[in-house]
Please model this.
Amino acid sequence: MQLPETKIVQDVKRLISSHFRNNPGSIDISNLPVTPELANRWLVDFVNHRLAQFGAYEDAMWSGQPLLYHSRLSAPLNLKLLDPRSVVTMVSKAFTEGIAPINSAEGFVRQVIGWREFIHGLYWKFMPEYSNLNYFECGDQDVPAFFWNGETDMNCVKQSMDILLQTGYVHHIHRLMVFGNFSLIAGIHPLRFHKWHKAMYCDATDWASLPNSLGMSQFGDGGRVASKPYCSTGLYINKMSDFCKKCRYNPRKSNGDSSCPFTVLYFDFLMRNRKKLTSVARLRPQFRNLDLKGETERAAIRRQADVYKSMIAGGRLL
Amino acid sequence: MIHHEQTKPVHRILILGSDQLNRKLPESFDTQHDLVYLNEADIEIAGLQVHKQRILMYLAAMRHLKADLEKDGIRLLYHSVSQPVQNNSQRTVTDLIHELNKLHPQKLACIRPGSYDALDKLQTVARKMKLPLEIIEDSSFFITPSEFSEWATDKKRHRQEFFYRWMRKRFGVLMDNPDTHRSGMEF
Model:
């Protein structure tokens, strides 16, 4: 659904073109719900056209389908242009009237009265010391250059960046399993990841971003928000998307030229942080899998990981 | 750009954040004696690589709120940014105090801000001005941080699954239906 461009939006676009032209992203396309009335139109559009499929596809990513069945209501909710009560009421009603199945309605309501309130509560419970947490004792490594400009051969990152640069939004699986996953296994500092997240997304207020990015995504809080780190090889991305088919990297390969950086860095991450991860029951099968590889293979993975990490640190194309 | 009437005394200044664009002002807001303060510099765009869409979303949404409040005759002090401003927190505190002092308010108020730093800044401002700061809980959430703390107390681990069940009971949302078990991994 394309929203009309208000006079105020046009004025601000001119201001950005003259004074913020070197900032990341593009405003060639603008479709932002900047008033309560426009935000409500988005809500109605979501409930009528996407909610029914939301539950079945919420964890999928697909080329050319930036929104899939997501609501994209996080920005108007977090700027308080939309009241979460009206969102929950409308979604519950859609279920009662048979417009949406239970997995969609329940899955969505969970985000609003469950996750969103949970994150907000934790933020105020744990701040200010929360922002200093760095469970894996990461060095000061910042996010890679391609998190700003999208210039990378990793097709999943490139596709996700294309959407992000155009809209200031990608849905949670892009954030968690592409950007977040990459930062986590590459050893990016969790607060740096949060700062990047806050700068690049329309919905990222501090209370929403910090527990989601530093906490859930980067496991910087050692498991206060999430029960396990969200790390994976490229094979998970291959399962959840169509990105790997068109990528020059192979998610099955963990060393050599065409090895997928996700797969390489994932095993390297497990090896680097073994001690800190022994308490995480859900990762035990992954460690057994790692142990099945011979020492020669593990050394090759480590060497390949060092190559990729030095490319990230040096700002080279990956 | 400054919009306010110099003549009428201001009792209380309600300082809104750039993410507090709810059209419904807090119930205690007194249209006769209170004034709303909003500053576009709050969106922290200077010296940071902030996405253009984010700047567009915040600035346009703030300016729409400004237009709506003006239409409703709400007294307003609003600052626009016409260029990137340096966001030096020391300086913004001094500037804010200077600006608010000109209105001779008796009280300051804010809706719980979207960041700890913003709250900290407002508390510093109030302390330096020797004025009380009332923190109004944001009605855009179902529960307040202290209600959350009550739930969280005496829990070793805070798990979203249990919290969600508690919230559903509390607000009677989708209660007739079975609990489908999913991991909470959402933004």
Remarks:
- The beta strands of chain B are 12-15, 34-39, 76-79, 107-111, 133-136.
- The two ends of chain B are 37 Å apart (CA to CA).
- Residues 178-187 of chain B have pLDDT under 50 and may be disordered.
- The CA atoms of residues 45 and 52 of chain B lie 10 Å apart.
